[in-house]
Amino acid sequence: MFLKLVFALSMTGLAAFSAEATSAATMKELNSSKMPFTLPALPYAPDALAPSIEQITMEVHHGKHHKAYIDKLNAEVLEKKTEKNFETLVSILKNTKQFSAAVRNNAGGHWNHSFFWTIMAPESQKSKVSPQLQRQIDAAFGSMDGFKEKFEAGARDVFGSGWVWLVKTSDGKLKILTTANQDNPLMDISPEAGTPILGLDVWEHAYYLNYQNRRADYVKNFWKIVNWKQVSSYYQEK
Ligand SMILES: [Fe+2]
Question: CA–CA separation, 227 vs 46, rounded Å?
Fold first, then answer.
């Protein structure tokens, strides 16, 4: 199932908001997307996450940064016909060792951002974590507050650009992992494997326009816009 959205032509003129597009509602859909990759629509209007994340940040982040990863990925994989012709996005992530650094960075950038948009929602649509996921959070971190504290510490400890993740391990347990640049725990080069169910972009481009160097404030406000319904759904997904 896809979330179908049509955005009105943006005042900024960003082409990304002018056309109908889809964003994956399940990880399976995202993982199985195929070349040429396309920019998924945001599952909400670009101003919908304000004031936690302001409209201008969303427009630049989605319409410029995310789009650039996709354009470069398509150029690397399709036009230059790099090493192997892997068909799906996840097959590239799981075989990054066989590709150039450019493919690794841009495939990661595309997956990470496509995923990131889906795990947020407007504050007015606040949702609750499922009882199943809450139990696992309690088991791994003691409580939701305990989890948030450790996740925030992870975000703080990423040196430079990267991501902090809540992942489900192969035995269904939860772990917090961090990755540099556009790497993620699905990749074959990841020191620790896991399936992300929540992730936070801590690149400066994700927050600098509103928060400047105050990454900790950005992370605190992120909790107001987490789409726990979607995160719980990712936890349940096989
Ligand atoms: Fe980003």
Answer: 16
